[in-house]
């Protein structure tokens, strides 16, 4: 198995997380477009658990193309109870990145699963996250360190590479404007941008070096 291209989708997510952590960045190392995957991270022990209900795990990771994330709520008592489940924006903003969820949910079984829609688009962007909370009927968060969880949306789109279509371009002074074509290679089909600037170049092919403001207007 190629270390940079793990065969299993779950391994690819874990690998990308490990590399990003090792380099202290969120750089896109492994692309997993159109691979619906959700990871329920192992729940760590909390100092102040809620005695009645909580999230099964406090962190979920889901690929954008999954379409939704499944969040599990655990009930500790034998009696039915109701809680409000509500999402809150973080770096992920509704409705562009996910659909807001705010509903009273009846907990009848030891575990209840709710689904929150995740928006899949063709635009490259960093991985984003939002939170989900358990609230009472008055919209107050339930006590305990396990009544809030984080959902990380893993973006699978690549920005691609942008370059000049031609290395050398000839233009007549009387044309007034030089048209320079850019090419986008690979990557998603969403909108991206790049910065372009001009500088005085070296003499090429015996041609006179162009002088800023005299021969061209600087772009910066």
Protein architecture, described:
It is a single chain. The protein is mainly beta and 220 residues long. It has two domains: 33-43 and 51-154, CalX-beta domain (Immunoglobulin-like), CATH 2.60.40.2030; 159-220, no CATH class. It has one helix and eleven strands, in the order αβββββββββββ. The protein has one helix at 9-23; strands at 38-40, 53-55, 59-63, 68-75, 81-88, 102-107, 111-117, 128-135, 148-154, 161-164, 182-185. Strands 1-3-9-8-5-6 form a six-stranded mixed beta sheet, with no helix packed on it. It has a three-stranded antiparallel beta sheet with strand order 2-4-7, with no helix packed on it. It has a two-stranded antiparallel ribbon with strand order 10-11. The two termini are 45 Å apart. Residues 1-6 and 22-32 have low confidence and may be disordered.
Q: Give the class-level CATH name of the largest domain.
A: Mainly Beta
Helical coverage, percent range = under 10%
Distance from first to last alpha carbon = 45 Å
Number of domains: 2
- Across the major sheet, the strand order is 1-3-9-8-5-6
CATH topology of the largest domain: Immunoglobulin-like
Uncertain spans: 1-6, 22-32
Tally the beta strands. Answer: 11
Shape: rod-shaped
The CATH superfamily label of the largest domain reads CalX-beta domain
* Order of H and E elements: HEEEEEEEEEEE
Biggest beta sheet attributes = 6 strands, mixed
| CATH architecture descriptor text of the largest domain | Sandwich
Q: What is Rg? A: 25 Å
Report the structural category: mainly beta
């Amino acid at each position: 198995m190629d270390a940079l291209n793990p065969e299993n989708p779950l391994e690819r997510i874990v690998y990308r997380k490990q590399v990003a952590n090792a380099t202290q960045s969120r750089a896109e190392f492994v692309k997993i477009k159109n691979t619906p995957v959700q990871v329920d991270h192992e729940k760590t022990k909390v100092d102040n658990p809620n005695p009645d209900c909580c999230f099964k795990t406090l962190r979920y990771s889901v690929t954008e193309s999954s379409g939704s994330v499944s969040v599990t709520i655990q009930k500790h008592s034998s009696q039915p109870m109701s809680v409000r489940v509500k999402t809150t924006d973080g770096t992920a903003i509704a409705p562009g990145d996910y659909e807001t969820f705010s509903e009273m949910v009846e907990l009848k079984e030891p575990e209840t699963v709710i689904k929150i829609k995740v928006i899949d688009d063709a635009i490259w962007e960093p991985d984003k996250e939002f939170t989900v909370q358990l609230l009472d009927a008055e919209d107050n968060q339930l006590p305990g360190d396990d009544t809030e969880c984080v959902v990380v949306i893993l973006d699978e789109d690549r920005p691609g590479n942008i370059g000049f279509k031609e290395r050398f371009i000839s233009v007549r002074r009387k044309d007034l404007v030089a048209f320079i074509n850019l090419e986008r290679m690979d990557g998603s089909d969403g909108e991206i941008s790049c910065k372009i600037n001009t500088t005085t170049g070296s003499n090429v092919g015996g041609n006179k070096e162009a002088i800023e403001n005299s021969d061209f207007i600087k772009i910066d």
